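Listing 4. Sequential folding, example run.
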Amino acid sequence: MPFTDIYLVRHGESYANVEGRFCGRPPGPELTPLGRLQAESACRRLTAIGARPRHILSSPLRRALETAQPLCEITGLAAEVRADLTETGLGAWEGLQANDLQASPQYRSWLADPETFPPPGGERLSQMAYRLARLLRQVAPAYEGHTIAAFSHMHPIVAFVLAARRWPFAEHRQVQVPCGTIVHVRWQSEAFQVIGIDPGLTDTGHTGL
């Protein structure tokens, strides 16, 4: 059966990561020097496994676009910006640091169960999983037999992996995607299969969504 390989890449370390600052939708911040090294490393790892994409997608946020840039330079492709790849909306918490919220019961509830207790004015995991799956369903059929790279953020990637594996969203801590992580997904027979997550990119194979 024909299939499309999709590599979801979390952006490299940004200055907001270093500061421990909530930064969902604002266009900044940029990558740190370490983040740029992580972007280059992710590109090298994709090249090493023979994943030369025919199409590159990116979140509109600066840190994702900067992470995609090394792959764009190697392939000669421009990244197509798609809003569905953007980071979670953090609502009233945008710009705050984790220390600012330690005393908040709502924050503690969100840490334990971000699906049931989203940030005030923010997104649920299910909403992020849906928008990312919607985008990939639109794009993947046009690249059967080929590869797509999509540069995104921690929360939407985690949400998508949980949904694709048919795991409860309460298991969100079981999916770890540090900065620069690659997640290999395959679109086949109208479904997504999680092939693997860095470092080995091998998995038992789960089908969902």
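-- end of first protein; second protein begins --
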Amino acid sequence: MKITPLQAMARAASTLVSDHDVTDVLARLLADAADSLDACAAGMLLLRPHGLLEVLTATSHRALDLELYQAQERRGPCAEAATTDASVVATDLASIRDRWPDLAPLVESAGYVAVQAHPLHWHGQVLGALNVFHDRELLSPADDLGQAFADVATLVLVTPTQLSTRTLTALVDAALSGRTVIEQAKGVLAYRLAVSTEQAYTELLRRAREGGSSVTATARLIVRDAYSS
């Protein structure tokens, strides 16, 4: 039974709150990604030190062979996405032949006619890429959904299976600290603008959005300004 993208994301997220096998979770996620994107296969490359590419997993032997080729030759959609930190889409065989003439015969013989790849990026660092293979031309590539699956895969990769009590406490304390400064900023804005706290929070969100900053960082600036004035 085909699951929805939301169900696929929820299933992956649910594994992160308990002990999990990273490779197993990613294999399931890749299958869900292919299903959600109406594709027939998916694979994943990881970027190692010194720019080396290695295959982590794939949903089929045909996809695995294509990932191995890309890792070895450093050419193809997944290799490009992993080394440029940008999504790569080829909507038909003509596009694939034009961009990767050496890879095109392998893609065609595997029964695929279109590909898309999305980088796994984490705080400015590229960890690899997710590759999806289609057996029909892409009229409207689902770039956002493909990248969403790549982002979830990144979270699976970087989320530790175990955290010490001290680390967990520190994370909770940091979250509560952020909430505290936001409440303080709401109070400052409510007083200065003579508005309700609800309106003050809306103003805080607006300032954060327009300033291109986080809500917590914006709140800290408001509180700092209040104390210094």
